[in-house]
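Input record (one chain):
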Amino acid sequence: DHVVSYGAMGSEKLLSELILENPGPVKAAIRKAGKRPVYFPWLSGRTETLAAKAMGAQLFGASPSLTSKYNHKAVFKQFCCDLDIPVIEGTCFNPGTTSLGTLSALKETTGPFLKKYPWIIIRAAVDNTGLSMAYKTDGSDVSQLYETWLDLGIDTLMIEPFLTADFSPGDQWIINRKGKIIHKGMRNQILNG
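The corresponding structure, as predicted from the sequence alone:
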């Protein structure tokens, strides 16, 4: 009912930048909804603060550094391990800069997993819209993938086995501004069938 489209699928601009350039469509949708708006972007920097103000919305978000801290998958896995919560085996790798030595090190890191599993997943440890690229590989294209990660400036890669699954349960929690942890619920994504 209250969807605003800027028609910018091919654009490099953030939603906040599009809103700042033309807040009118969003403001019209907010008036039509008749509710007090809250802008909840992935992370909140200066641009997001200005976009919220332009819409007349309350900003609900975290700084880039805080978002990175709590959405870094390697850090999250370590928290789980510290709490004795089982996690899938895996390791991290820093792509660094272009060098044959670093590429060889990546191949050495993926090697033991590929001996144990026919496929592995290599993905950015920071998961957000711009960096959440996961690649399933049998190892034959690691050199090409390595170049992609360098171009994107990804600082940490996670290497994990690709496991076949029929479903993927997910649990969602939030932390409010007062530090209270709230369980939002569970969902189960059916993968086959």
